[in-house]
Design brief:
Elements (H helix, E strand, L loop, with lengths): L2 H5 L18 E5 L8 E4 L3 E4 L8 E3 L5 E8 L3 H7 L13 H15 L10 E8 L4 E6 L8 E3 L4 E5 L2 H4 L9 H10 L12 E3 L4 E5 L3 E4 L14 H19 L6 E4 L4 H13 L4 E7 L8 H10 L3 E6 L2 H6 L1 H6 L10 H11 L5 E3 L4 H5 L5 H13 L3 H8 L7 H4 L2 H7 L7 H4 L5 H28 L3 E3 L5 H7 L15 H6 L6 H5 L9 H7 L2 H8 L12 H8 L9 H17 L2
Helix pairs in contact: 6-7, 6-19, 11-18, 13-14, 22-25, 23-24
Length: 583
């Protein structure tokens, strides 16, 4: 069989897939005699189960030795094939996810495990060696796709969605993960909220048997050309952004962009408008006439880019009513108030496009203002008496300082001395701002932002793409001197320089404000009764772990000097609904 025939899918086990988003799949590894799920393919120690028979998520290599399972998307497929000397077949068929899996299988035949470091784009893959009966799990550098596996039992389960394998393990919570969620509003690192489930980390692989974890790529500071001015670094960034955004656009099809009117989403929208030859749709939200909004800026950018603009009003009732389904769509709980708006905006976008871009990644990669509190602490730490980890956790403005009172005594005792996943990066030799940015990319990026994008766009049937988190952009960000990122009070200076010719001056000069979801007002005026019933119930899922008397004080707004109780309460109701969705 020729490569062209194999590439086009002329194998009975590999029907092509053409949907906008990758499908679902699940592996059972180890003891298989008791597995009763619908089996798509099996070997001695591996089963592919409960997947989609029309669009199976696997291919078999030409030698029949390797089976490649999972989600993979290469933005510039042709360029990638040419780079590695792979013939580009003459075919008029539209490329599919299946083609990308075939590329992985082809490379694995030649390079084996060295293939991981050659792969661009987004992927969460399992590769099965039928000869050696060995399984490798791997995830892309930025963490655009997700991949989970169980850690105990004779049968191990692997899937890209945590909820898929949750029925195969104990519902016992990982208490350290619970502690970290309360601090950050997401679960950072390889832990998940389930004690028996782990996440493959970005840029890492796991080999079974043995659960050997190896890192094939690590985000590291590598400052280049520190003598060059801001303009030079801006030009370098622009070249990469041009290439990445062009590769992320769906050829010949309408494309969408989530548009807040801030720098990050505006520059992605402007680049899409510059390069795309099909309709461009933009989507913005607001929370009613009585709440502050950024529609003035998002409408300006949409008009500037000649996009078809869509505006969605999200009411307080919408926020509460759609929270349960939003939490059910997430792998781990995420206590960011933007989860519900993200789901609803994605549902609106699905009416007009299959692919939607976003501006996520600008702050983590290019020095957003949220780094400023940590920089101030570094300068005045001797006055504040806060060590780096305490200051970093406090910068999330969630429940870090409340843990001794919020967690029940026995829970706090069990987790108080457990180490933090953030410590190693905080203590690295990189420049301080780049340390903070590495934390935000590696953890908040992979474990909150990209997981949220992946889960919620998948839930509404569209493909969400984050160009500013592309591995090329992330790697480049660590070569730029910190003074060209957060320069005094000017944040993201290099990004502004890179896109200065694309956007109205008012967008480039406006300060970062962020999308302010009015949860403080929500709990005061709209959700208090429902939240009391949910959180103070003796049968609440959080009741075994948290001090409900403290939560009652928050619901009463007792001593809310800084106006932060609304954010903390949203984090807790999100957790409660997530736990209930798993019961």
């Amino acid at each position: 069989m020729s490569f062209d025939q194999w590439w086009r899918g002329w194998l009975p086990t590999a029907t092509q897939q053409s949907s906008a988003t990758a499908g679902t799949w699940q592996l059972a590894y180890g003891a298989l005699s008791h597995v009763t799920e619908d089996v798509l393919w099996r070997d001695e120690q591996l089963m592919i189960v409960s997947g989609d028979r029309v669009h199976p998520q696997f291919v078999i290599s030409t030698s029949q030795r390797f089976v490649v399972v999972g989600d993979v998307w290469f933005p510039d497929r042709t360029g990638f094939m040419q780079q590695w000397g792979i013939p580009v077949p003459e075919t008029h068929d539209a490329p599919t996810f299946d083609h990308d899996r075939r590329l992985v299988a082809h490379l694995w035949e030649q390079y084996g495990t060295a293939t991981w470091e050659k792969l661009p784009g987004a992927f969460a893959l399992a590769v099965w060696d039928r000869e050696r009966q060995q399984l490798w799990l791997g995830r892309d550098r930025s963490g655009i796709r997700t991949l989970y596996y169980t850690t105990e039992g004779a049968t191990r389960w692997i899937a890209p969605q945590l909820g898929t394998i949750a029925p195969h393990c104990s519902s016992e919570l990982d208490l350290v993960a619970l502690r970290d969620y309360l601090c950050c509003a997401f679960v950072p690192g390889e832990r998940t909220l389930w004690r028996q489930v782990r996440e493959v980390r970005p840029g890492s692989t796991v080999q079974m048997p043995g659960d050997a974890v190896q890192t094939y790529w690590r985000l590291q500071e590598h400052i280049t050309h520190p003598e060059k001015p801001l303009e030079w670094h801006g030009d370098q960034l622009r070249k990469v952004l041009d290439d990445v955004v062009q590769a992320y656009l769906p050829a010949g099809k309408p494309v969408g962009a989530f548009l807040s009117g801030g720098l990050d989403s505006s520059c992605i929208t402007a680049l899409a408008a510059k390069f795309h030859d099909a309709p461009l749709h933009t989507y913005s939200i607001h929370f009613g006439a009585d709440c502050p909004n950024e529609l003035e800026f998002s409408s300006l950018v949409a008009q500037h880019c000649q996009a078809q603009h869509h505006v969605l009003e999200i009411t307080f009732q919408d926020m509460w009513e759609h929270l349960p389904e939003t939490m059910a769509a997430l792998d781990d709980p995420i206590g960011d108030p933007l989860t519900v708006p993200n789901l609803l905006l994605g549902r609106l976008a699905a009416e007009t496009v299959q692919t939607v871009l976003n501006g996520e990644g600008g702050d983590p990669c290019f020095g957003g203002p949220k780094n400023q509190p940590m920089l101030i602490n570094a300068l005045y730490g001797s006055v504040t008496q806060q060590e780096a980890l305490q200051a970093y956790l406090a910068s999330f403005q969630k429940c870090a300082i409340d843990l001794p009172q919020l967690l029940k005594p026995e829970i706090w005792s069990a987790v108080q001395a457990e180490s933090s996943v953030f410590t190693g990066t905080l203590q690295s030799d990189a420049r301080y701002l780049n340390r903070l940015m590495a934390l935000n990319i590696t953890f908040k990026g992979a474990d909150q932002i990209l997981t949220k994008v992946n889960n919620l766009t998948h839930a509404v049937g569209i493909d969400g793409r984050s160009p500013l988190f592309d591995p090329q952009v992330v790697a480049l960000s660590m070569t730029i001197p910190p003074e060209h990122k957060l320069s005094g009070t000017q944040e993201k200076a290099v990004l502004k320089q890179a896109v200065a010719d694309l956007l109205p001056t008012v967008i480039l000069q406006r300060p970062k404000s962020g999308m302010m979801v009015p949860v403080q007002r929500g709990f005061r005026e709209h959700w208090n009764r429902q939240a009391r019933s949910l959180l103070l119930n003796r049968q609440a899922a959080i009741a075994p772990y948290l001090n409900q008397s403290l939560i009652r004080n928050w619901l009463d707004y007792t001593g809310d000097t800084w106006g932060r109780y609304g954010v903390k309460l949203w984090l807790l109701v999100s957790l409660e609904y997530w736990l209930r969705s798993r019961q």
